[in-house]
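dumping this here before i forget
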Amino acid sequence: MAGKKVLIVYAHQEPKSFNGSLLKIAVEELTKQGCSVTVSDLYAMQFEPRATRNDIVGHLHNSEAFNYGVETWEAYKRGGLSKDLVEEQKKVREADLLIFQFPLFWFNMPAILKGWMDRVLVQGFAYDLSKLYDGGLLQDKLSLFSFTTGGTKEKYAIRGDIRYLLWPMQHGIMHFCGVKVLEPHICYAPENVSEEKRKEMLAAWSQRLKTLWKEEPIDCSPEWYFK
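structure:
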């Protein structure tokens, strides 16, 4: 939709990967719609995933016992977060839609993306303990988790509904901060299917993006995940 701003946080090492193709399609299609698209390519940026004292510029609130949550909250309030965090928070603040593109690792997002969540979405910026979930600080935004798996859809059905895995990502992070969540886009086992099937997966992503702004967010309740 023309005028909308999109931030794609991309976590894959190889631009020629299937994830790289999904990213390319998203950038091209959303740009074609008139959206302003920004990409945080975490591996290319050599993004630091570790949450450390280096994230605070200047003095610590308590130099005797380091508490990352407290220190980043205090640093945010006084404008004392590191430059890389300030830059990523600016991208988030300006975005109408956040897309997270990644391969599923051990039923979870890659460590570099989890590190982005840990470091960027600090208290005061992304959430406040008195303003959570539907009343969260980022409630004017949409999010979408687009990812690939190593296993087939049938294998995940045997292990349990893949929605179980999405509870900590979509509900525990995005919804916690007030962000509305769109239906995830899952490409199952792209490395183990035919080239024709991979092309179909890419075409389906492109087609979905054409009407993405018309979609309604999911019901962020336990029933959606565990029914």
